[in-house]
Amino acid sequence: MLTNLAQQPADALLALIKLHNADPRADKIDLGVGVYRTDTGATPVFAAIKAAEAKLLETQDSKAYLGPEGDMGFVHALMPYVFGAANPTMDGRIDGMQTPGGTGGVRLAVALAKKAGVQRIWMGTPSWPNHAQIFADLGLELKTFNHATKAGVVDMDALRAALAEAGPQDAVLLHGCCHNPTGIDYSHADWDEIAALIAARGVLPVLDLAYQGLGKGMEEDAYGVRRVLAAVPEALIAYSCDKNFGMYRDRVGAVYAMVADPAQLNAVLSNGHALARAAWSMPPDHGAAAVRLILEDAAMTKLWLDELDVMRARMNKVRAKLAEAGSAGAIDLKPLGGQNGLFSILPLTSEQILKLRTDHGIYMAGSGRINVAGLTMGNIDKFIADLATVSA
Ligand code: PMP
What we know:
The protein folds into 2 domains: 6-45 and 312-391, Alpha-Beta Complex (Aspartate Aminotransferase, domain 1), CATH 3.90.1150; 66-296, Type I PLP-dependent aspartate aminotransferase-like (Major domain) (Aspartate Aminotransferase, domain 2). 43% of the residues lie in helices and 15% in strands. The chain is built from 13 helices and 13 strands. It has a 7-stranded mixed sheet with strand order 2-8-7-6-5-3-4, sandwiched between helices. A two-stranded parallel ribbon has the order 1-12. α4 packs across α5. The longest helix has 28 residues, at 298-325. It starts with 11 loop residues before the first helix and ends with a helix. The model has no long low-confidence stretch (mean pLDDT 97). 4'-deoxy-4'-aminopyridoxal-5'-phosphate (PMP) binds next to α4.
């Protein structure tokens, strides 16, 4: 029976990590996998997480099962940051559950949409590759539109045309901030328009917020999510703490549902619980418990927010330096200064990407996506020079 299973392609980015690790060149640069790096190239555990983990070790008195919803203290502690401190439950219309990472959040959000009757989902491309994989695995029809124009700005016309065709049986997936892989985000005016269009068409929004705080700040990065939620009766929100708390492998995430009438919320969430039970039963506890301890403690919260500010400032410094360089050969670097988060896309051919790797030890995804946090004040000049060489 198992011989029926054909070989699947290896994950391209994970294969790239292996190639990078095997490269003996001292000045090699890893711009592949999406993790934050310091100016010395490290991806350290946050001091706030270390403090929370120490407290957890001391105070945790049981590891008995919690339930498919996970740590609801964690789920609720995040809500003021996502939905606003003034009315984090939108008058009792929003609640959620813990998921294994933001991936679990996206998976559950889309599975809930499907179970509720959604058959088609719209999404701007390019996108995080796992979005399309999750839709395909759930048997949803994917309708795509262009996320950004060649000039490196959001393609609002494409989005308008998509939403004009979409209807009440459809969902639309939008990145809340720090678009992966382009770094090209909607402006406030764009979000205002998008919120109105989604509401007018009756499309179900699925909002993926995986990088809150890595763009312009925790509050600013929530603008789009909050704007859409204020305009529509129902929505699903997938959240990841794996970047903004540096928890990657500990898999910390959540899914939230907003309903029109608070009386419907329990029924919706009970479907989330049933879907989780059939998939992973319960989410891993440790990371979410550590995040909860941080958010329950004012001093630890401040420590975490300060660490997040340092990360964001460093990425903005790298972006500013790239923009300041203006161009590298035929590549215009100026747009990178106005983009957000870990990623940007460089308009390189596959030959140029390969040449950067083989001749210069610079590793990036086959799409031309770079992790700007892989650049440091020590390697950025080499990067710009090598980019100029291959693209001249
Ligand atoms: N959504 C987007 C847009 C992402 O880029 C990612 C991670 N790369 C996720 C969701 C999921 O994050 P994780 O499962 O690692 O929490």
